[in-house]
Amino acid sequence: MENLLGLLRIHVEKGVNLAIRDVMSSDPYVVIKMGKQKLKTRVVKKNLNPEWNDDLTLSISDPHAPVHLHVYDKDTFSLDDKMGDADFSIGPFIEAVKMRLTGLPNNTIVTKVLPSRQNCLAEESHIVWKDDKVVQNLVLRLRNVECGEVELQLNWIDIPGSRHL
After folding, report:
1. Cβ-proximal residues to 58 (8 Å cutoff; 6+ apart), any chain
2. What pLDDT sits at residue 137?
3. Which residues lie across from 42 on neighbouring strands?
4. pLDDT, tens digit, for every residue of 59-114?
5. 108 to each of 21, 68, 104, 127, 153, how far by Cα in Å?
6. CA-based, 20 to 30 A from 92: which of 49, 65, 155, 156?
7. Virtual CA dihedral for 94, 98, 102, 107, nearest 10 degrees?
8. pLDDT above 90: residue 117
9. What single DSSP character describes residue 121?
């Protein structure tokens, strides 16, 4: 607990154009891993454009550790099928949180993260000031699969007594 910086709330919004892994559709869910932590969303039945709207919360002690996202197709009688994966860094988001911004107009862009070979961003990601907090919206293009994207939103939660950023 003494190494804890705070909590990262990841709002897993939706999947777009996910790959088919069953006969005509898939039953997708998302697994997010960071270090020894592993969290998963609920399964959405028979949908290639699922809307999860699930909140997953990771405790952050190392702001440089990558976050791994995996999408799977839930199978009843066999191992779940892989539907792609993506990695992203929370470094730029943490840097924006460290600024301790206050009083900015809603939807002010604090910084931008551009897609590159080092990240799985499908498009430019804006870190914005919204409702008195720093928020980042991400669209991740899945790797190791023929198609698919996952949309996320990152929020920071300060913990009383935690190490300051």
Report:
1. 7, 8, 10, 32, 34, 37, 39, 67
2. 97
3. none
4. 999 999 999 999 999 988 889 999 999 999 999 999 999 998 888 899 999 999 99
5. 40, 28, 7, 9, 16
6. 49
7. -20
8. no
9. B
CA 160, 37, 88, 45: dihedral to nearest 10 degrees?
-110
Alpha helices in 77-125 (DSSP H): 91-98
Written as six digits, the tokens of 136 are: 């980042």
- Tracing tokens 């028979």 back to the chain, one arrives at 46
Which residue in this structure is represented by tokens 């994207």?
149
Tens-digit pLDDT profile for residues 14-55: 999 999 887 778 999 999 999 999 999 999 999 999 999 999
